[in-house]
Amino acid sequence: MSEKMLSPRVRSPNLQSPTGQRTAQLSSAPPKKFDPDQLRSYMKKLLPSTLQGMVWDSKDRDQSKAWTKEIGDRVKARMLEIEPSGFKYVVTTQINENLGQGGRAGLVCHWEDSDACIQEMYTNDSLICICIAFAIRIP
């Protein structure tokens, strides 16, 4: 074997990071920020209007799946209205029976200033709904 193959310090001139207009554009323009307040106010209205008066039925899983899907789809659609491009959107919706239990959740991430995480919760005597929406900026 040649020594050149064993040496980890050998660098190829073809393995350099590209520089060009795109790099210059990304560094000079401030990143778009997602406005969490617009989505939060929408979610505060959406959850009660969708779930008010609904009753948890452990035997009818299709109904809770339908509620979860409807809420998630509507939140994501609203996110696309607020900021149609430049972000990846993730929405999680969870609906459980309300048995008077407590709950605690935590979220630890390293965020960019332009990213957003919005959480809303709705409860009635029968169910608990937690909806979390993430807007993650993509270059």
TrEMBL record:
GO cellular component terms, A-Z: cytoplasm; cytoplasmic dynein complex
GO function terms (MF aspect): dynein intermediate chain binding
InterPro entries linked to this entry: Tctex-1-like, Tctex-1-like_sf
Region annotation (Disordered) ranges: 1-36
One BP annotation, GO: microtubule-based movement
Compositional bias of kind Polar residues: 13-28
Protein name, UniProt field: Topoisomerase I damage affected protein 2
Organism: Rhizoctonia solani
